């Protein structure tokens, strides 16, 4: 069949399809440019903050105090270990004085327990992956049960992961647990003084209450624990020199409350880490003794806690030198600065990609329903998931 002027209907249809394809391609490019523009805007947008200077100052004191003690006694590794434990101060919730201190002490004990389990993993060959998985699951359940805000399970898993790759004998393990406990107690003491001085001037939130949906918390914990353990397994299979950074980066990404938030944290963490490596390179020539290490920890902690509520990527710039200083001082290696920073970037990217996969699983209803059904059949959930 021929149309007017000798043009076939096939030619007309082909021309129409070509126009539609060009129109769709144009829309796709517009959508892509719009998405890229939004991501770039998020990278330079600062959030409002009503955080006073007292909290970052107290956090810097809680983490820097043990390092100052380590510098005074010539025990750099043990001082850095206490400084990691001092990060427990960041769990201090904005609730009434007589509830915030017990919660803070419970979180400090959780970090100490995670560190002790990590030391067990260091002394038992092949135990790192299952024990880190257990720590991640229990840490998620603990934080979900009481609706704890970030850092959530992150520092508990960090404590376990760092300990799991610290070669020690039994005698030194007990000594390290003691120093870690000292750092945790110091953080609790700083929290008590800070709370007593500032609680009347703060907006106190309602009392923390356990989460209502127990099964939902169990599902999230098991999913997150699986991906944390998977990230550690991949790090070991890739023979990464510092595998403990991979599960920490993985869990940091999965803490986004939505898939969009997890994606944004993923972009911000990678960009922040990349820039942070440059900051680390600039700082390292000035960090040449124990006192400058302590000063760097105090300054970086203060900056992070000041800016993290305003911009995650900007704070991530300072996460990188702080975590490198803390972890590498707690068990120093012989690698050069270049190798150390390259390893940190690779660990962050690997962990972030796996964490984004975990966030996709956490925030996709179909996948969650499938996982919940499996957990119900195993007897790990009480209520039958919908659709069965």
Give the overall shape: globular
Strand count: 0
Main beta sheet strand tally, sense and closure: none
**Low-confidence spans:** 1-7, 9-16, 21-25
The helix-and-strand class reads mainly alpha
Give a description of the structure.
With 388 residues, this protein is mainly α. Helices cover 74% and strands 0% of the residues. The protein has one domain (49-377). The chain is globular and about 55 Å long. The termini are far apart.
What keywords describe this structure?
388 residues; mainly alpha; 14 helices; 74% helix; globular; disordered N terminus
How are the secondary structure elements laid out?
Blueprint: H1 9-44, H2 54-73, H3 76-86, H4 97-123, H5 128-145, H6 154-164, H7 170-198, H8 214-237, H9 245-254, H10 259-283, H11 290-307, H12 312-330, H13 337-363, H14 365-377
Helix pairs in contact: 2-3, 2-7, 2-11, 3-7, 3-12, 4-5, 4-6, 4-7, 5-6, 5-8, 6-9, 8-9, 8-13, 9-13, 10-12, 10-13, 11-12
In short:
This protein has 388 residues and is mostly helical. It has 14 helices and no strands. The radius of gyration is 24 Å and the shape is globular.
């Amino acid at each position: 069949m021929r149309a007017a002027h000798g043009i076939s209907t096939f030619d007309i249809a082909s021309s129409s399809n070509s126009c539609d394809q060009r129109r769709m391609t144009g829309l796709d490019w517009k959508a892509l440019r719009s998405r890229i523009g939004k991501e770039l805007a998020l990278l330079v947008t600062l959030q409002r903050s009503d955080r006073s200077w007292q909290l970052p100052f107290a956090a810097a004191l809680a983490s820097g105090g043990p390092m100052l003690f380590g510098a005074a006694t010539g025990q750099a590794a043990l001082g850095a270990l206490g400084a990691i434990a001092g990060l427990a101060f960041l769990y201090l919730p904005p609730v009434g004085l007589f509830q915030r201190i017990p919660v803070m002490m419970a979180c400090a004990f959780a970090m100490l327990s995670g560190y002790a389990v990590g030391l067990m993993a260091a002394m038992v060959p092949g135990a790192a992956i299952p024990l880190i998985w257990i720590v991640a699951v229990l840490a998620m359940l603990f934080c979900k049960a009481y609706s704890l805000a970030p850092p959530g399970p992150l520092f508990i898993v960090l404590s376990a992961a760092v300990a799991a790759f610290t070669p020690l004998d039994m005698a030194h393990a007990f000594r390290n647990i003691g120093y870690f406990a000292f750092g945790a107690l110091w953080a609790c003491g700083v929290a008590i003084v800070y709370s007593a001085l500032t609680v009347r001037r703060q907006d106190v939130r309602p009392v923390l209450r356990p989460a209502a949906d127990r099964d939902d918390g169990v599902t999230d914990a098991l999913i997150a624990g699986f991906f944390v353990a998977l990230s550690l397994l991949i790090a070991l299979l890739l023979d990464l020199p510092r595998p403990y950074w991979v599960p920490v980066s993985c869990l940091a990404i999965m803490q986004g409350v939505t898939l969009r938030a997890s994606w944004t944290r993923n972009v911000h963490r990678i960009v922040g880490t990349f820039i942070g490596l440059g900051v680390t390179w600039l700082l390292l020539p000035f960090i040449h003794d124990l006192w400058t290490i302590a000063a760097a920890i105090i300054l970086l902690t203060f900056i992070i806690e000041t800016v993290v509520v305003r911009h995650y990527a900007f704070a991530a710039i300072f996460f990188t030198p702080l975590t490198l200083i803390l972890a590498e001082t707690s068990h120093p290696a012989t690698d050069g600065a270049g190798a150390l920073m390259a390893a940190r970037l690779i660990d962050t990217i690997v962990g972030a990609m796996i964490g984004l996969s975990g966030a996709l699983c956490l925030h996709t209803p179909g996948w969650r329903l499938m996982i919940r059904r499996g957990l119900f059949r195993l007897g790990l959930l009480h209520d039958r998931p919908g659709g069965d």
